[in-house]
Amino acid sequence: MQFNFNSTEPIYLQVADQIEEAIFTQTFVEGEQIPSTTEISKEFHINPATVLKGMNILVDANLIEKRRGVGMFVIAGAQARIVEKRRDQFYTDYVKKLVSEAKKLHITQAELAKLIERGFSAS
Amino acid sequence: MSTKLRVTTRYLLMNQLKALGEAFLAVIAIFIIIPFILAVVSGNLSDFSLPNTIANFSWGFLIGAFIFLYDSLTYDNFKLFIQNGLSRKTFWAAKIVTTAIIAVIGELFAAFYRYAISAPIWGISAHAALMKTPYSLYGNFFGSNVWINILVSLLFTIIFFIATGITGMAIGGGLALLSKWGQRIVIVVVPVVAIFLIGFVGNSSADKQVHYDFTWLANLLKFLIGYPQHEPAIAGSFSPAVPMITMLIGGAIMAAIAYGFNQLLKVKN
Amino acid sequence: MSIQVQGVQQSFHGHTILEDLNLTLEPNKIYGLLGRNGAGKSTLLNIISNRIRPTHGTVTLDGESMHDNDHTLGKIYLMSEVNMYPERSRVKNLFKTTRLLYGGFNDAYAAKLVHAFGLDINARFGKLSTGYRSIFKLIIALCVPVDYVFLDEPVLGLDANHRELFYQELIETYSDQPRTFVISTHLIEEIANLIEHVFVLNDHHIIVNGEVPDILAKSYTISGPQTDVEAYTANLNIVGEDHLGGITAHYVYGALENDRPIPDTVKVDHLDLQKLFVILTNTKEEATAYVN
């Protein structure tokens, strides 16, 4: 986990994003405990209330759950839900931006399609 | 007594007892060990009498001076106490309680030393030992029962120590409100003015040409020290009641002044 | 349940330091008190802790006066730059004195902190370096049984490792045992995410008083070509501006006009706390020094 403090996004959203990212990349495994509010708070000098606010976003999104007296755990199926959500957002987050930038550079639709093919074959 | 007053008093008392102990040791060092070493070095050991040196200690003066000076120290304790969440009021009250306790302990020690150590070494009676103290003016007031006279002398001296300490508190409290510069000026100027005034009063009383009349002042002072109004003024038969009441009233006034200054204390810069 | 500062005014020899100042400190929150040198931060903290008396105004804790009151004063601790402890006393004895006078002290935690920071408890307070004086006072601040802890320049003289350790311990003890902390510091970046609520003191007044996310949400940099930026920020609360080459940046503190379209050439970003502070507290001379 890391935080980009120059980001203009509110810190609690960054906390939620970073934990989500860690679940997505399976750094935090389903069914296992994630670091406590205090641990994250201490590591990054973030107010515990802010960290909790970020975690609550993930609780509401059904990605993590609180077990009383123990801590926060990744819910089974959380990663799949994140993948689903990101697929939904893929068009707005990436495709729209890609096309807009391509237009600025006078890259045609056909040329862009070729570039995408090239990207696929390279990786 | 509230918890805060109790702990503040305990802190002040512990510190003062420790400082008083150090002062005693310093006095012993200065008045026994150094003269002894000098006697040894100069080869005049026969002139040095340990019992006499021990007997001649007059702890009362040391205790009075100590109480006055310690009570005048204000700012450092104020800083420590306000840092520790204690009010000015509590600081003031704790200081007065501490002064009273030190006065009692100090005088009991001094009296024990005088009657149990010095008097036997000198080979004199308790009465004679009492008459060697400043209290000798009042030493026979209660007639021939020496122990009653001694008991009253203890009470008298304790009241004197307390009044002295509280006066120190008032003076120290006033000084603590001034800047370092202000303090220096006051410490230099006030004694000079006081000496000048005393000289002035003395001269004008002696010189009848000048028509300032200070007989009222002389009469007042006589009254305050308990000078007999009718009987012949024989040292020893003065009344200790008036000076004791005077010291109590003076102490109360000084306590009020100290309280006023104490309320104005603040952390500098 | 709160500390209320009401109508506090302070002047020294005709100089106004604080003017009609009002603020509330709630339980169990971490506050930042920011201000430039001489803005009156220490004066304000000294007034709250009854070390000095304000010319006008009152400070209360749960409705009870803070003036000359053991009960309320015993619930707060102010760690300040001014040295309040006797120079000749040893560190370990000062811990004992604190325990006696405050009626409690977390000895176990103090021992842990002493070890972690490498403080010599046998040293005399007067012999400690600036950094270790800060550490000594910090340890007391974190171990006394109070509801409100005021830290005036808590990391003065601390190296980066000790500062890191301090922030971690602050969070640790705050999580274990929530209480209010008010941190006054010039190192804004280090506490920007730690504080929930911020006060900015400038020109004898509190010019910012709010939750940090709310404050940052209404702090903007609007940058782009000068004419476009000026058109977009017209009538907005512009608190500063920068020019670099052909790019102009306007800093806006307050709401934007939602129905005003943002031109493609103009970029809208949020400010961070330090940048906002610098902009809001710049003098006119300092502000124009950037404009070349």
TrEMBL record, chain B:
The lineage of its organism: Bacteria, Bacillati, Bacillota, Bacilli, Lactobacillales. This is Abc superfamily atp binding cassette transporter, permease protein. Keywords: Membrane, Transmembrane, Transmembrane helix. The chain crosses the membrane at residues 20-41, 53-70, 91-113, 146-178, 185-202, 241-261.
TrEMBL record, chain C:
PROSITE patterns: ABC_TRANSPORTER_2. Gene3D superfamilies: P-loop containing nucleotide triphosphate hydrolases. Keywords: ATP-binding, Nucleotide-binding. It holds the Pfam family ABC_tran. GO terms for molecular function: ATP binding; ATP hydrolysis activity. Residues 3-228 form the ABC transporter domain. SUPFAM superfamilies: P-loop containing nucleoside triphosphate hydrolases (SSF52540). CDD domains: ABC_DR_subfamily_A. The keyword NAD does not apply. This is ABC superfamily ATP binding cassette transporter, ABC protein. It comes from Lactiplantibacillus xiangfangensis.
